[in-house]
Amino acid sequence: MTKVLLIGEGAREHALASTLINYQVYAISSFINPGIKDIVEKSKGKYFIGDINSPDFVKKVISEVNPDFSVIGPEDPLFNGVSDVFYNEGIPVVGPSKNDAQIEKSKAWMRELMWKYNIPGRLRFKTFSNLEDAAKFILDYGGSVAIKPSEQVGGKGVKVVADLQAYLSQDKRKALSKSVDEIGSLVSDEVKIIIEERVDGPEYTLHVLTDGYSYLPLPLAQDYKHAYQDGIGPETGGMGSISGPGKLLPFINEEEYERSLDIVKLTSKAIEDETRVSYKGFISGQMMLTELWGPTIIEYYSRMGDPETASIVPRINNDFGEILQFAAEGKLSKAKLEVKDNLVSVVRAIAPYGYPLDKSIAKGQRFYIDLEKIREKGCILYFGSVELNEGQIISKGSRALELVALASSFNEATKRLDQCMGFISSDRKMVYRTDIGNTIDEMKEKAEIVRYSYKNREKKDLLGVSADWSPNGGLW
User: pTM for the complete prediction?
Assistant: First the structure.
């Protein structure tokens, strides 16, 4: 039987593991994920516990397992060069090299690349190593901006100010400038802060799998990042997601999908030109439909998103594990993707009390789950940041579970999730959102307004043109 080595420990990796049932599954995690453990044991593989970010540890596991191919789930192993171990050993792997993974790790590098290669959907930006200069720029500049840490820090630290009411702008700018030190403290790179022009519109994610030659786009998904109901509270890694119907979302049309794919493919080719290494694995565009460009890049992932994976994988009809193997082996042209076109999915992430503000409180809480009843009601459960400890499911401090429902409508899927929630409990109050998938009409309306604006710009050859930012990516 073909042996696959899966790296990672969250709900994304549990979802990916569920597609590998025709393989002998070996896995590396830093703790025992109950869902991954079950799949490993059923396949008669082996579960290794250790540092998933250590190339040396991964190399030791490789020497014991001798896998036929590997799938790397999270971004941190990519940033630490774990994929390069497989490339050096001649083992096929789904995951870009460390250099190519810069497209996610460094927002500054990503923005510079898009401007250097004239890729559509790019935003104007400035980078700052000196936090005082960044704070001064925010106070002096009159337009709407978003400030971000220059490197990937797990979805933390993004702040936005919009100049919709001029009499509030100075107070808002003072508040935002005070956030610079907080955001800068998250970053270890010399470049601390990136300030971008602010854009608005419905967000979506396009995941594209590539072997360096062929490209396989997956169905769109939308991620709900804010912690609390109705999109308020701090940003998280994602409190839920939706996908469908078909390969689109109700507020993104076929032309916008194809434009998004073109942007991602152009970026992949630019990375290869820049690093001299073919991009292999997932390159995923976190996008927004804006009046400036239409499809616009907010950031890139060098892997599948979480919880987007949980909304996409259950909608795939054929053997996605085989598709992953084709991608790893450079045979992606053989792959055909079959999607459950008539079904949509809704994912609800469930976190322990204390998340996301105090993960020390959120750690160590027990979860009680009736998995059989959940399945009887037609839901799927992926285990995230929970550890199997002496038969008990214990929270690790982050998003613990991802509950998925497929149905013919988003409303029906949400009702199914509500029913399945009755079979999940914890020592303390759980943190989750019940509005995931309930904003479709709002997104449709927003998209129509944006679409009218960017189409008018396109007719006048003004896509991407912004009055107060220079064509080379910065201020005049």
Answer: 0.92
